[in-house]
Design a protein that fits this description.
- This protein is mainly alpha-helical.
- It is built from seven helices and no strands.
- The protein has two domains: 101 residues, no CATH class; 55 residues.
- Helix 2 packs across helix 5, helix 4 packs antiparallel against helix 5 and helix 6 runs antiparallel to helix 7.
- The radius of gyration is 18 Å and the shape is globular.
Length: 166
C-alpha cells in the first residue's frame, strides 16, 4: 500500500490522466454506447460538471489544511491533498473532453438561441479563462496568479450552475 501511495504522490500530468482514464474507462464506455439523443447530450454535460467539481475540491482541501491545527490528522490530510493535487489537471482535462462532446452535440441539436445557449457559451468562455489562468499559474506560481485561477474557477462554476438550473 505504501508503494501505491508513493506512486500516486509522484504522478505527473500524463500519468495522472492515464490513471484517471483507466479508473473511468468502464463507465465512459457504458455511457458512450448508449443511444444518442438529447438526454444523452445533457449527460455529457453533467459528467463534465462532476469532473470539474472533483477538480475544484482541491480548494476546500487546501483551505482546510491551512486552518487545521498541527497534528497527526493534518499530516495525513496533507499527504492526501498532495496526491489529490496530482489528479487536479487530469480531472480538468477529462471534464473538458466530456464538455467538448456536450458542446458539439448541442450545436447540432439546438438551432435557435435561447438563455440556455447564452449561459452555455458564457460557461465555455469562462472555461477558457480558467484554463489560461491555470496555465499561467503552472508556469509561475505567484499569489496573484493563484488567486486569479481560483476566482475564475469560482465564476466558471457559478455560470455552470446558472446554466444547469435554468
Amino acid at each position: 500500500m505504501n508503494r501505491f501511495i508513493a506512486y500516486l504522490s509522484m504522478l505527473n500530468v500524463r500519468n495522472s490522466l492515464y490513471f484517471l482514464l483507466i479508473v473511468t474507462l468502464p463507465l465512459s464506455l457504458y455511457i458512450l454506447l448508449q443511444p444518442w439523443d438529447y438526454l444523452h447530450a445533457k449527460r455529457f454535460g453533467f459528467i463534465s460538471v462532476y469532473f470539474f467539481l472533483l477538480a475544484f475540491f482541491l480548494f476546500p482541501f487546501l483551505y482546510t489544511i491551512k486552518h487545521l491545527p498541527r497534528n497527526f490528522f493534518q499530516k495525513r490530510f496533507v499527504l492526501f491533498t498532495r496526491i489529490y493535487n496530482r489528479l487536479h489537471i487530469g480531472l480538468s482535462i477529462l471534464g473538458s473532453a466530456w464538455l467538448i462532446l456536450h458542446v458539439v452535440y448541442m450545436i447540432f441539436l439546438l438551432k435557435n438561441i435561447n438563455l440556455y445557449v447564452i449561459t452555455g457559451v458564457l460557461a465555455l468562455l469562462y472555461l477558457i479563462l480558467v484554463t489560461l489562468t491555470g496555465y499561467l499559474r503552472k508556469r509561475k506560481a505567484s499569489g496573484k496568479r493563484r488567486l486569479n485561477h481560483r476566482y475564475t474557477a469560482l465564476f466558471f462554476l457559478t455560470v455552470v450552475a446558472v446554466h444547469i438550473f435554468l
